[in-house]
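User: Working on a comparison across species. This one is Secreted protein from Streptomyces sviceus. Can you predict its structure so I can line it up against the others?
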Amino acid sequence: MDYVSALVPPVVMAVFFIGLIRVIVKTQGGANKAKEDAAVDAALARAEAAKQVD
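Assistant: Here's the predicted structure for Secreted protein from Streptomyces sviceus:
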């Protein structure tokens, strides 16, 4: 049973770490996400328009 007690702490830490990463990824963006997306879309549209003019 020593191997079980040796494996439990790393497994618990891994589960919490995966949960933390999921929370961080899900909360990215927030209130400014729409503004950032609009700015990127506008920049891509300008680049595409400049490419079509050439």
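For your comparison, note: The helical segments are 2-26, 33-53.

User: Helpful, thanks.
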